[in-house]
Amino acid sequence: WDLKVVNIRDAAEDKHKTVDDTPYGGGSGMLLKPDVLAKSLDINKIEGERIFYLSPKGKKFDQNYAQDLANEKSISLICGHFEGVDERVLETRNIEEISIGDFVLSGGETAALVVIDSILRLLPGVLGNEKSTSDETFQNGLLEYPQYTKPQIWEQKSVPDVLLSGDHNKIKDWRLSQSEAITRVRRPDLWKKYKRN
User: Fold this and answer.
1) What single string gives the DSSP state of each residue in 166-177?
2) Whether residue 129 has pLDDT greater than 80
3) 171-177 CB contacts, 8 Å cutoff, 24+ apart
4) Which end of the chain is flanked by fewer CB atoms within 10 Å, N or C?
5) Does this model's pTM top 0.85?
6) Are 179 and 145 in contact (CB under 8 A)?
7) How big is the chain by its Cα radius of gyration, in Å?
């Protein structure tokens, strides 16, 4: 795995290294210029890479999406402090838009870190225990079950007996029922999708 940070401004040709301009038709904010972004992408292109623009109007990024991208040879993430990007460059360079949620950030850098971290932890050798990702939230479409560690009793609260039983089938059933209950209450959207499958 390798990370390369590219300053789009390096592709600007005017003396001020301008990368943005006002939108046609008016409106607030500035748009990333298509000529500058396209040149930067073309200079730094890696054969077979997928290019993504981090945008609140993009396809929702989730665990399945992260798994898909973890299998890619190379990806590029476009982020910045702009109102947006000229639509023409998105179309001509086959750029996919992705969103980390239904909210707006002041820049795409934070969103890029979220995407990078969620992908990296899926790569072999990144986590100490390869099984760490198999039982996590979203792996089976549910939120993760409650977790407990030592001491067995803490502030008069005990670890559930089933987890102390040594019966792996009962533990598995308990974890599934807890995941289902938590998902049903906290994330009805996930619960609905889970029930359909």
Assistant:
1) --HHHHHHHHHH
2) no
3) 174/145, 175/135, 175/145, 176/142, 176/145
4) C
5) no
6) yes
7) 22
